[in-house]
Amino acid sequence: MTELGTLHGIPEPANRWEESIANGLSVLDCLVYRSNLLGADRALANVGGGNTSSKEIVRDHVERDVNVLWVKGSGTDLATITAAGFAGLRLDELVPLRARETMDDAAMVAHLLQSATRPVQPRPSIETLLHAFIPATHVDHTHPDAVIALTSTPGGRRLADEAFGDEAVWLGYQRPGFDMSRRIASLLEEHPGARAVLLEKHGLVTWGDTGEESYEATIEFVSRAARAIDDAGRGRFGLGGRKAAELAEGSVDQLLERSLPVLRGALLADADGLVLEVDRSPEAVAFASSERSFEVSQIGAPCPD
């Protein structure tokens, strides 16, 4: 039986970028490729979470060169998004918004819609201005478990300073929108050597001159965050060791046959219908059998993500 002596084990992501695929793709198609890679790796992005962008000069319908920001549309999933899931916006109409002191969500959304390069396209992400205000050509904003864990824990900022130093800037929690985007832009001007932004209880922002650079930066900072959490927790946080004895395979099957119908009936009292799934992975069994499993399972998530 697997032992879970600690709360370690946040997986580190793998670099799945393939030059043979990326080379020759258009800017938008390469953005789709990068987004799919990020969304398919649960160490990098949770389901549906995050947004990505690329900037390029595009010839418009009257043969003018236009600076375009391609940004993920609202309600799309990075793992499955296609080119049709991105919104094209005239970047030169977005960057000047940084000069404003305030802008409410309704005014911001209206401005984004009026800056569209195409008459029919998805509604741009609420975090579009984050991508517009960062001058890099390619920007990735993800919600990785490792970064959210680091930025949600007491002492997280100290751990981040130790792990990243001047390579990452920290932004205290702000709800997404104009103010957050403007603050990030100011932080990066104040810290020109920074390579990433850590958003408290929210996620990570990386960028690069190429899509591959931005993708690899995401992998790097997520991996370093995971190692920082493991190092900080070693010998300090645990589940108290195994409390329940390991059952033989046949006994497990008998227990499930007796208990699942009872559990399903109890849960149906408050639901119209449900499907039960049994997770018998070594990690799940070890957690459920540990001394502190009930206590830890009732703590709840530290943030919406």
Class per helix and strand makeup: alpha+beta
Q: What is the average per-residue confidence, as pLDDT, rounded to a whole number?
A: 89
User: What is the CATH-assigned architecture of the largest domain?
Assistant: 3-Layer(aba) Sandwich
CATH class of the largest domain: Alpha Beta
End-to-end Cα distance, whole Å, is 31 Å
- Secondary-structure element series: HHEEEHHEHHEHEEHHHH
The dominant shape is globular
Q: Approximately how much helix is present in the residues?
A: 25-40%
Give a topology summary.
Blueprint: H1 19-22, H2 27-40, E1 51-59, E2 65-72, E3 86-90, H3 105-114, H4 128-133, E4 138-142, H5 145-152, H6 156-164, E5 168-171, H7 178-190, E6 196-199, E7 203-208, H8 211-233, H9 249-268, H10 282-288, H11 293-297
Parallel strand pairs: 5-6
Antiparallel strand pairs: 1-2, 1-4, 2-3, 4-7, 6-7
Helix pairs in contact: 5-6, 5-8, 6-8
Question: What's the quick description here?
Answer:
With 305 residues, the chain is α+β, with helices and mostly antiparallel strands.
Structural notes for this entry:
39% of the residues lie in helices and 13% in strands. The chain is of the alpha+beta class and 305 residues long. The protein has two domains: 215 residues, Class II aldolase/adducin N-terminal domain (L-fuculose-1-phosphate Aldolase), CATH 3.40.225; 40 residues, no CATH class. It has a seven-stranded mixed sheet with strand order 3-2-1-4-7-6-5, with helices on both faces. The chain is globular. The two termini are 31 Å apart.
